[in-house]
Write a structure and sequence with these properties.
With 88 residues, this protein is α/β, with parallel strands linked by helices. It has one domain (4-87). Helix content is 55%, strand content 15%. The chain has five helices and three strands; from the N terminus they run βααβααβα. It has helices at residues 10-14, 22-36, 46-52, 57-68, 79-87; strands at residues 4-7, 40-45, 73-75. A three-stranded parallel beta sheet has the order 1-2-3. The chain starts with a strand and ends with a helix.
Length: 88
Amino acid sequence: MKKLKIYLDTSVISHLDQQDAPEKMADTLKLWEDIKLGLYDVCISDVALDEIYKCSQTKLATLEKYLAEIEYNYVIADNEVLELAEYL
């Protein structure tokens, strides 16, 4: 069976450590467990990672630990993707 491909945007990664949104954090941590089990083919873009690196050092350290737990495809957003993002 082919794995479902998912794209993790900044908000999904950020919700791994979002103390002020416990329900979203719990849902995201559950998804993370499924990702660690290899149930999904994960993609993360350079744009999402650039945004993550703007977090506080404390939060960034936590998120980097989570990212190290999974395998993901690193995608570089091209001009077409960036134009679409600005349009939306």
